[in-house]
Amino acid sequence: MTEDVINKQRAFGKFLAFLRRPSSRYSLGFLLVAGIVSGVVLWGGFNTALEATNTESFCISCHEMRDNVYPEYKETIHYSNRTGVRATCPDCHVPRDWTYKMIRKAKASKEVWGKLVGTIDTPEKFEAKRLTLARNEWQRMKSSNSIECRNCHSLESMNSEVQKQRARKQHEMAVEDNMTCINCHKGIAHKKPEGMTEEDEDG
Amino acid sequence: MKKSVLASILGSVLCFAASNALAEAPSDWSKIKALDTTLFYPGVSPMEWINKGTEHGGARGMKKGETCMDCHSEEIADMGGKMVSGQKIEPNPIPGKAAAINVKVQAARDDEHLYLRFTWKQPKASGAAKMDTVNPVKIAYMIEAGSKVEMANISGCWSSCHGDARTMPGADDNKTKYVKNGSLANGIFYDLNQWRSGENKAFDGYVAEKRVMEGGQALQSATGKLNGDTWTVEFKRKLAGSDKGDVELKAGQVYNFGFAIHDDNTIGRYHHVSLNFKLGIDSKADIVATKQ
């Protein structure tokens, strides 16, 4: 073991001893308040940074999203409709529940790597990868029983009388067959990928 | 002796007159219940498209036995509008072509014949180049017995429409309509009757492994006339079937039925088509031929 390593271990040991030693300088109240304030600042800062990555403007700050899927979404009812309700990127693609949100964000670190190495940095590369990306997202939504859809929609809340006949029939079948939203509503906000199979459609 | 001969001759004349009277179309069609429906422009929507879930969301329902009408009966004209404008599945839209045609269908029968009457208002001409230079209008119906043609029970005559048939994009000009596993011998066919306005001629054929326009023995006549802007076409065909592609029509039975109009001098897929119907012979159905 080198002398340098030994010195580092000693320094770490001293730091631990410092943390363990009761304070003789600061009152317990001071420490408590300081801890709470520090916690709020750290936690608030973390959440603020987290939520900053959970916005449409953050998503389309990358040209891969801005130039490919975003223009398609802008043509759909989830972007523009008579009631003025808009579902933005994270509403559909990031879970609301904190735990699942953190898992999704952790997985998104892979997307950061993709960004750095330019996996989908041209329209051609994006199209070549579109089916794979879509399949990943369909599978994620299916495994969560389309929770992001159901944050706003539910079969139970639908008034079938005001639905078109075709939609009414499809939703009746969805209930009968215990299906989830994404089973049918692929391509609802972005164009369907080339090369989709019947298995993709039924899945 | 003379009296008995006279009585016999008189009896024969009366019988002949009576049978002739029985073989006449209804004298007053206004008393026959009519089905009001809409034919629509289908674009490129062959069975291969219908059954492809990635293209047609209803494919899933059809696998479960839902009919075309179950999902689309309230939006037929709207569908025609999307296709005819090129908004959906029509790579070659014809400007000015009608999206849909409202048609009244009536049926009746006597002991030997089925009578079908179609009435519709002539849509405005598109002004496009004439595909069929002889016949401005053609109307045809198909009847299928026993649901032996795959999906005929839910698709009307759609099961004869395929993506590799003439006028479909990239298709062989000589390939006609056909049905999967089509065979007259096995009863897997549609009985096809058509009337063409320019030739003023009736065609009695069938669709099995291919479409055959002539050779049938059931169709007795087809007449059409344009009164003002309203077309009326009447078909008279025997109830009896034959092995020449004629479905036998029996009282108490229901048959799969669909029909189409080639308007505006068109051919092939550029027609207006119905969704699925049932034709009943003295039996409850969408179109019922009741004995007169």
Rg of chain B computed from alpha carbons, rounded to a whole number of angstroms: 20 Å
Query: What string, H for helix and E for strand, traces the elements of chain B in order?
Result: HEHHHHEEEHEEEEEEEEE
Fraction of helical residues of chain A: 55-70%
Largest sheet of chain A: none
Shape of chain B: globular
Instruction: Report the β-strand fraction of chain A as a percent range.
Output: under 5%
Q: What can you tell me about this protein's structure?
A:
- Chain A has 203 residues and is an all-alpha fold.
- The longest helix of chain B is centred in the N-terminal third of the chain and has 21 residues.
- Chain B starts with a helix and ends with a strand.
- Chain B has 292 residues and is α+β, with helices and mostly antiparallel strands.
- The chains are: A mainly alpha (203), B alpha+beta (292).
- Chains A and B meet through α9 and α11 of A and α3 and α4 of B.
Concise structural overview:
The complex is a heterodimer of chains A (203) and B (292). Helix content of chain A is 64%, strand content 0%. With 203 residues, chain A is an all-alpha fold.
